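Posting here for the record, re: heme C.
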Amino acid sequence: MKKIVVIGILFALPIMIFNSCNSSSANTVAKEETKDESYITIDTSKIPNDKFGESVRYGRELMLRTAYYIGPNGIKGKYLGNKMNCTNCHQDAGTKPYAFNLMSSHDNYPQYRGREDKVLTLAERVNNCVMRPHSGKPLPLDSDEMVAFLSYFKWISKFVPKDSLFKGAKNLKIEFPAVAASPERGKVLFTENCARCHGNEGEGKFNEDKSGYVYPPLWGKYAYQPGSSMHRVIKQAQWLKGNMPFDKVTVGKPYLTDAQALDIAAYVNDDSVHTRPNPKTLDYPDPKAKAIDYAHAPFIDPFSEKQHRLGPFKPIIEYWKKQGWEAIY
Ligand code: HEC
Ligand code: HEC
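Prediction output follows.
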């Protein structure tokens, strides 16, 4: 018993230190991470056996087999423009730690979003992902599918604390090197660490009946759009650190260094050598609400588009701090 308590404190310390110097997380309510050392798991056998439970189950299915239901050839409607599944990024249907975890989302909306400069409901936020990473058209707010997504998010939110951040609620943090991220170094690292699954052309690999991917695409016309947060180099690096290479990372135990994750994200998202659908992007009406690694002008600071894309990020963060603004990334 004692041993567990000691480990708990050791785990909690660095997390608390990180949190106090960087409360950056874009648009969510500021919360302290709990000192509880364990990861939260959900037990799907506890989904109730009633109408609500049916909707929760369908919502979970939609997270896992999105394209099968609502993809370009979806059996329930043709909404998505590609065959990625939500779980490709929000792994384990949104419950994996450090993988854009969605277990607090139901509690955190409606929420102000800098992107639109307005308050969005959770349903509208779901449609942002349907439209950007999935190049789709929005689900009707009263469709069975949207209701199912929301039912599922409500149900998984029961397992998490309401007044503190649980372990893995946010992605792992990245320490910024003094130098800019390098797509050239990233390309070499990509060949070594990523191409064996995602392909040399980042094209991914379909499953047998082509209803989805075994390895989802990283660029090309079926990958996420440049307006997606996954296209931001810092945002992607934080996620890569916690999740890729898929076969080398276990929860909370990164394989890539922070600098490698940034270099690889810089290469994957280098649109001078890669193509993506819909290069048009939706801009932040208030540039002060723009994430510093969202590399689309105009900017409120003197740094170039290239530096917003690749860094070095420290000078940008310091500049923002000096102005009394909070740098989001
Ligand atoms: C290519 C990766 C990718 C795919 C695929 C994807 N998302 Fe997202 N999603 C993101 C990223 C990145 C964010 C922003 C996370 C952040 O800022 O920490 C996000 C945020 C969200 C949020 C807001 C979470 C919060 O609490 O603020 C919801 C809800 C969401 N996604 C639902 C979905 C659903 C439902 C699908 C499938 C239809 C989906 N996403 C597909 C990458 C993806
Ligand atoms: C062993 C195979 C494997 C390797 C190696 C691997 N991945 Fe993945 N990757 C996956 C799988 C599988 C998923 C989908 C995860 C899921 O659905 O739970 C994924 C998802 C992704 C996604 C989110 C979905 C998308 O297509 O946008 C990105 C980004 C990504 N990987 C990047 C990388 C990068 C960069 C590397 C190298 C550092 C890498 N992966 C190495 C198997 C792999």
